[in-house]
Write a structure and sequence with these properties.
Helix content is 11%, strand content 35%. The protein contains one helix and eleven strands; from the N terminus they run αβββββββββββ. Strands 1, 2, 3, 4, 5, 6, 7, 8 and 11 form a nine-stranded mixed β-sheet that branches. It has a two-stranded antiparallel ribbon with strand order 9-10. The radius of gyration is 18 Å and the shape is globular.
Amino acid sequence: MKWLILCGLMVFGLGLLTGCKAKYKDISDDPEYRHLLNNKYETLSKLNVYGVNAYGNPDNDSIDLYVVVNFGYDGHEVLSRIFLDKDTEFVILRVKSCTNCLFQKLIKYEIAILSKSPIRDITQPIYLSDNQNNMAIEGSDGRVDLDPSMFSKLKGDASL
């Protein structure tokens, strides 16, 4: 019995070390997120934007998506880095949650840039990444809002 448990733990540990590709499902219709859609926001500070190869293949130099974060990171999957300037306006298009991330709730918000920006006209998806749980906060009513120290909700039409 001890060997069975030990082998199971070794297989589980090996699985954690080898990693896996995160899979996401659209949760935009969930009550805690649906109110965020189609609202116009602006950034209150400069943010990092990384062009990422989603599969982390060092032989593939194509950018699959852009990730907006308020911290720096590096790795073989990061192919470029630019900035999203303070006062950049954007709209949230959809919200996605990782379905196979074991130890934390990973949320990403797909956005479209409304104001002039180096990434406004790219064709790849752009995500606000809440992997560090620092871009959004949960209110007492259970609804999630973008962190007001980083983003300001604007009035007016958010149409693209």
